[in-house]
DNA sequence: TTAGGGTTAG
């Protein structure tokens, strides 16, 4: 290789943007390197794999190339697969064999099988398996392992085991692959059996077990394997931390993170995104801030995934301003960063801002993906932007060629339903090209509950009962619809049938962080000291609100047909009221009160929060199951539309 | 070629 060639190669390797890539391409043409498959292959590799928005450039270049070799084909197959177009990988593989008569090598199979695994296509996978048989690659170590992993992803542990059994001398990687496949297909016992049978294990083998147990929610078994491991690498630690966070064990996640630091080990970006995700789910703002400080100090603040997790954490912990600051200071923003910001703003009802961010994103040349549109439509539905919502729904298909998924349809049902166009929402569901799932019907039932439509509510509940007969939430929603309409007989019948079928209402809980401890309150629970303290404070607050704020309890949605006074008593037990009372009693003045709740906030609690914010001059952030409510000076950021 | 992470409608 001469100096010019070496220079071209180094330019290609360091190229980061499509613009410089085009310049390098031009210089390759000048020097005559462009028709050399080696350089052409490298060029495509960088277009397709390294630079996110340059795949189309790679395709154009590839199509005009006179005789692409197997390396070029493999690169394009890999590029399609890694950029989220797995079907195109398969088409390219077929083209390679049929049109160009280029025989595939082991890499071609490995890449294309990974693509088939990515979109979980068992049919494509089995056809590729046949091809591998024809070319004699099925017992090849690399290809065999990818086949096992593909069958695992496609849910066929039977075929995965068959491939494994036919391998002549499976190495530790193949063993790890078959254990992973068992876990993916839910065969936890099979995975354990194979793990115990392994004569040689590497650190990945144990990490596979940790990940498998963590994904099946078996954290105790994961913990056992973890502490039995002689050498724990950073993947082992991050698997545990993330595993705990995903299984709702936030204290454990934070504990393992602390232990990791106590041992003098440096956490990696995966552990950090894991703990941040834990903070986001739990609403642990103070913890989140500590991790942010650590991230700044230890230089993780240039990593996009860590910043994305920070944006999400701040948004979900009630501080969308900080989420914005982190977002603005990010050195590089991916589609996930933009989507997280849109989603964050949408949760607060700041739909106009969310739409603005979306247009800014388009202006930067970032292509939105299907999740971006879910967030954007969510923003519109939660703020009553019906026209815009409809227009983005069609824009998604017409401009970006993104096929709407059940999630997008769900947003549209919510958009119409929440705004009161119940018949339109119902017709929309009936005309959907995808068959509606429980969530779609539940969204519609929720809308019927907001707008008090008994007739449609009953019709929708019937459909829900066919799909999921024993859901407590659905029964409670219908019961509320009856209660608001004053149909106490129907309420009683429904509640009797719930008792008969042993359907229990899931209790409402709220959490609040005080002095870096998370306190949780459950509706009606009076067993401990903190709850007693909260009840005492709440009594005093309610009295103040009655005198100074003119508060009258809204008890319409209380289930039973009982006396008004009893109904009042029942709404005073709501967990978010207890949490806010506890916050007022314990937190120093001037601090924002942040509450996380598992159910939707009720109308009476919403009123109380608004009044507290005015009478006590406090800012309160309540995250309910679906969105944020920021109470300040007597009003809420949701503009009472939720 | 095997293991860990961020955004997903109610």
Structure description:
- Helix 18 runs antiparallel to helix 19 and helix 27 (438-451) runs parallel beside helix 29.
- The protein is mainly α.
- The protein is globular and about 90 Å long.
- The longest helix has 20 residues, at 529-548.
- The protein has 34 helices and 6 strands.
- A 6-stranded mixed beta sheet has the order 2-1-3-4-5-6, covered by helices on one side.
- It has a domain at 509-636.
- The protein binds one DNA strand of 10 nucleotides through helix 7, helix 9, helix 11, helix 13 and helix 15.
Give the key terms:
642 residues; mainly alpha; DNA-binding; PPR_rpt; E_motif
Structural class: mainly alpha
Number of helices: 34
**DSSP E strands, number:** 6
Percent of residues in helices? 55-70%
Strand order of the largest sheet: 2-1-3-4-5-6
Outline, from the CA principal axes?
A: globular
Radius of gyration: 28 Å
Overall mean confidence score, pLDDT: 87
Residue windows where pLDDT falls under 50 for at least 5 positions: none
Termini, distance in Å?
67 Å
Beta-strand percent range? under 5%
| Largest sheet descriptor | 6 strands, mixed
